[in-house]
Amino acid sequence: MPIEPGLWGAGDAYERYMGRWSRLVAPRFVEWLGAGAGGDCVDIGCGTGILTAALLEGAGPQRIVGIDSAPGFLELARARVSDPRATFAQGDALALPEADDEFDLAVSGLVLNFLPDKAAALAEMVRVVRPGGTVGLYVWDYAGHMQIMRHFFDVAAALDPRALDFDDGVKAPVCRPGPLRALFADAGLESVEVQAIDITAAFESFDDYWTPFLGGTGSAPKYCMSLPEEAREELRERLRTRLPTGPDGEILLAVRAWAAKGRVAG
Questions:
Q1: What is the 3-state secondary structure (H, E, C) of the chain?
Q2: Where are the transmembrane segments (predicted)?
């Protein structure tokens, strides 16, 4: 899928930055999705295999095909998901290699907002699902209750307006209930539902929160590592004073994803 080069290519860095929280959201999404046992599934933008693994455990599919454009992610997914029902392949979310009506379920986790043509991506998901099948996805609530990033970008933008060019809360207006519902309806999907999935992100210390921003994978880390050392240190210290910190240095932040699903007509 044509995502900005280098944004999400490093699997290990992604795991430290967002993977640990994605791992908590994925099973909640699968439970809400209500996918029955059996059937064929495609996981578009499968990343490191977090959603694929959750589907294998919670939905009982006959097979899952995971597709991603990043070789680093696919390498990690293959290493971590050994279930023989799962296979992984490199591909483009806007031009899937699969045939029409090949799957009972098409899913995508935390990917839609990074695709340049969201309607085309959803149309591809619909195309590969049989009539009566399900299309479902979820995205982080970047503009609202995604406090890991909101604290970061609110502080960064106050110090440097250039940070807004990296802020997914500004760049990804689709990550809200109304736009998601409209996108699914425009794709011809029926019985469309949108649901919030809320978790708590618990950090042992400020360093546990800060260190993943130095990995360069994702919009906020990419911005962070573009700064000269002095500016990065100022951002770090401003964040330290802003974040809600417990008596033992722990930090608890709210994290929300918006999930959407619909049925393919026919």
A1: CCCCCCCCCCHHHHHHHHHHHHHHHHHHHHHHHCCCCCCEEEEECCCCCHHHHHHHHHCCCCEEEEEECCHHHHHHHHHHCCCCCEEEEECECCECCCCCCCEEEEEEECCHHHCCCHHHHHHHHHHCEEEEEEEEEEEECCCCCEHHHHHHHHHHHHHCHHHHHCCHHHHCCCCCHHHHHHHHHHCCCEEEEEEEEEEEEEECCHHHHHHHHHCCCCHHHHHHHHCCHHHHHHHHHHHHHHCCECCCCCEEEEEEEEEEEEECCC
A2: none
Confidence (pLDDT) at 9: 46
Q: In 10 A of CB 31, how many CB atoms?
A: 13
Task: Report in angstroms the alpha-carbon separations of 26 from 44, 62, 107, 125.
Answer: 14, 19, 11, 18
C-alpha of 57 from chain center: 19
Closest by Cα among 173, 172, 168, 182 to 260: 182
What pLDDT score was predicted for residue 173? 82
Where along the chain do its domains lie? 11-263
Distances (CA, A) of 158 to 16, 151, 239: 26, 11, 11
Integer Cα distance of 133 and 190 in angstroms: 10
Q: Which CATH class is domain 11-263?
A: alpha beta
Average pLDDT of the chain, as a whole number? 91
Are 138 and 258 spatial neighbours (Cβ–Cβ below 8 Å)? yes
25: tokens are 């959201």
Question: From CA 170, how far away is CA 185, in angstroms rounded?
Answer: 23
Residue 215 pLDDT level (bands cut at 50, 70, 90): confident
